[in-house]
Amino acid sequence: MARKRENTTVAVAAAASGYVMKAAAEAVRLGIAKMILVGDAARMQEIATADGLDLAVFEIVDEPDNYAACRKAVSLVVEGKATALMKGDVDTSSIMRAALDRENGMRDGKKLSHIAAFEPPHYHKLLFVSDCAINIAPDNDTKIEIIENCVNALHHIGIDVPKVALLAAKEVVDEKMPITATWAGLVTLHNSSDRMNGCIVDGPFALDNAVSKEACEIKGINSPVGGDADILIVPDIEAGNILYKSLSFLTKAKNGGVVVGAKRPIILTSRADTAESKLISIALSVLF
Known about the structure:
The chain is built from ten helices and eleven strands. It is α/β, with parallel strands linked by helices. Helix 1 crosses helix 10 and helix 3 packs parallel to helix 4.
């Protein structure tokens, strides 16, 4: 799907990283996007020589200082020379500080949120998780925007009515677990207003009920979302981070991640993520 999109260019901030450059080279080879690498050009040349990469396939912008590289990559997006921003070998706080600069950044008046895509080996379709990386303890309004961001992104990849599961530790409302009541309230809001359109929202769900029809049958849960979720919405960043890394490292699910809600997508993979994960993230940014 990403190869069918035209005029796509990704600006990579602090691009002097083997995994990042391999992913960028593969994105160019596959025709997914053009790549502008912003960073220490001498270091990029060393990596290219060691890994057998051809720097001629990229546009190179030499900027050895990491934060300056972040600002330059952001400016390329703001000026329309790139259609997405990508984090390279730099910490998340630096690239987000540049991206969210009030005067020169990529703010668009919306809440930013992170969407992770997974291909779990024992699930029957792609599974999306949000928010694993941006919003630490989202309030109700932010939770709604996280859902809306994710639903809108999935519409762009042809999932017309995504099924959204709101995750908690159990599938019934329990006053000792406030998130269960919060989720029940959001389901009521979804069913009675124009918020969170274009999807089916249900919850609270324990994880097993969200992804297993058998678990739903055993527990007597009758929901169009149960056992067939497209999107898992987590209550906070701790739950999201743990779920993300559990799927990545314990199940070896292929995955990628993108931040949405800014003027353009931001590819915000971990520096420990594989070149394949970064490539998937580039493709997602093109689609989102």
